[in-house]
Amino acid sequence: MTNLPGDVPAAAVTPPSPQPTAAVPGIVTENVAESTPPTETKVGARYIWLMVLAQFGVFVAFITPIAISLAIRVGQLEPDHQEYLGYITGAGALVVVIVGPIAGILSDRTRTRIGRRRPWLIGGTVLGVISLIVMASAPNIWLLGAGWILAQMGWGQALANLQISTADRLPESQRGEVAGLVGFATQIAPVFGVVIAGSLTSQNLLLFLVPGAVGVILVGLFVLLVHEDDSRGRVFDTVLGVKAVFAKYLYNPKSYPDFSINWLGRFLFYFGLTLNTTFTAFFFAQKLGITVEAVAGVIALVGGAGILATTLGAIGGGFLSDRLRQRRLFVLAAGIIFGAGAITMALAPDVTFLVVGSLLGSVGIGAFAAVDQALLLDVLPERETDAGRFMGITGFATSIPQAVAPFIAPVFLAIGAVSSTDKNYTLLYIIAAACTVAGGLVVLRIKSVR
Q1: Residue pLDDT tens, the chain, 450 long
Q2: CA 345, 346, 348: angle at the middle one, nearest 5?
Q3: Where would a tag sit more exposed on the chain, N or C end, judged by fewer CB atoms within 10 A?
């Protein structure tokens, strides 16, 4: 994959009759009644593969716009302002910084017949489809940006609740394995999406909705076929008002030092990754001397060549980290490998070196996506009652870089540029490499996990 912006139910327990006690119906009180330790019962193949397919579907629908579709629309609406792509993606990520943790907290406390997570999966998918229609039909750059914000809120929540589901259900012995499979699937998803988009560049509606249909179908299968217990009987004894909700955005890092270190390492890696991937289409177009519309096929071709590399990084890293019970060194290796790939691409004199750099980056992204996700689940605090909250806080480590990096990137791109159309991608990619290596080094300070 090129460096693109790439069931077995829980123990059956009959719930007591619903006893709503919250001031805001169903979702605004803090659960203090459930304190049973997480089960170590392994999940079955059906849950694993439906999870993998669902996350693959979300990424096809959600990441294809970053990989190519948004760049095409920006080129159509504002052909002389490539930097608008960074502003749009940054604004969308900034909104997620605000709403992500709230949604995680409310997901933890949602009480419905179909469980806590599935309502959010359904709602997020519906909003995601609406966002794709808005982006496809936007007559100006402002509505295009609004559509991307809706996409971050919709598809982002669908993805977040799939990931929270893994925190709810996966025992330690399966976290690396499942994260590896998911990491592989979500890294090849943009390649799949770009292949679809490459044949639809002249039809805006299909350019967005065909990848979106993949997301709807695969998330729908997960919702329909993965059982989740009725959550209406969850007992709450304290009201969680607006002030208390926002207070849950914060926690004492000293109380959970390893979680905090993992957060910082993830932040640094995704900051570098965002610098590297946001302008991929424009970077390839400048390197190869072709138009942005024409670059879709090239990106798809290079991405296809990276599938094996992504498999090696994601599945290999995930499975080996389970077998060797070693997470930190794999995360460091992922940061170094990705950094080497970014520098190789930045200095590439021809297509051959672009492909080599892309393959290295694919190994690094795949390994990091798998092993760091497993490491996160190892150090996640208060898993039984507040998994959504802390997964939401973890989301800051990706959403803040996605919000900030695109706004900073144009500064680096302008350094040394001799004209408004000339961009310093070499400097941008070198800085991206330094960030990902730093992220791997930080994780070495975690003490509770090898």
Answers
A1: 444 433 333 323 323 333 333 333 333 334 333 333 444 688 889 999 999 999 999 999 988 887 778 888 888 898 878 788 888 988 887 887 788 888 888 888 888 999 999 999 999 999 999 999 999 999 999 999 999 999 999 999 999 999 999 989 998 888 988 988 887 787 778 778 888 877 787 788 888 999 999 999 999 999 999 999 888 887 765 667 777 777 777 888 999 999 999 999 999 999 999 898 878 778 888 888 777 777 777 777 776 777 778 778 888 888 888 888 889 999 999 999 999 999 999 998 887 888 889 889 989 988 998 899 899 999 999 877 788 888 888 888 987 887 788 888 888 988 877 666 678 888 999 999 999 999 999 999 999 888
A2: 60
A3: C
Residue 29's SS3 state is strand
Residue 172 burial by Cβ neighbours in a 10 Å radius (0-12, 13-18, 19+) = middle
d(CA 88, CA 127): 18
Buried b vs exposed e over 258-286: b needs ≥16 C-beta within 10 Å? bbbbbbbbbbbbbbbbbbbbbbbbbbbbb
Amino acid identity of residue 402, one-letter, is Q
DSSP string, 291-337: -HHHHHHHHHHHHHHTHHHHHIIIIIHHHHHHHTT--HHHHHHHHHH
The beta strands (E) that lie in 204-273 are given as 236-239
- Residue 16's Cβ-side half-sphere holds a number of Cα atoms within 13 Å equal to 5
In the numeric block, the tokens 């509606």 are attached to 205
| Cβ atoms within 10 Å of 41's Cβ, excluding its own | 11
Is the distance from CB of 312 to CB of 434 less than 8 angstroms? no
DSSP per residue over 356-415, as a string?
HHHHHHHHHHHHHHHHHHHHHHHH-SSHHHHHHHHHHHHHHHHHHHHHHHHHHHHHHHHT
CA distance 128 to 110: 20
How far out from the chain centre does Cα 62 lie?
A: 9
**Residue 429: its H or E element:** helix 425-443
Q: Which domains does the chain have, with CATH numbers?
A: 43-443 (1.20.1250.20)
Helices 280-288, 425-443: inter-axial angle, 10-degree rounding: 140
Q: How far apart are CA 215 and CA 211, in angstroms?
A: 7
Q: Residue 239: helix, strand or coil by DSSP?
A: strand
The pTM (predicted TM-score) of the whole model is 0.71
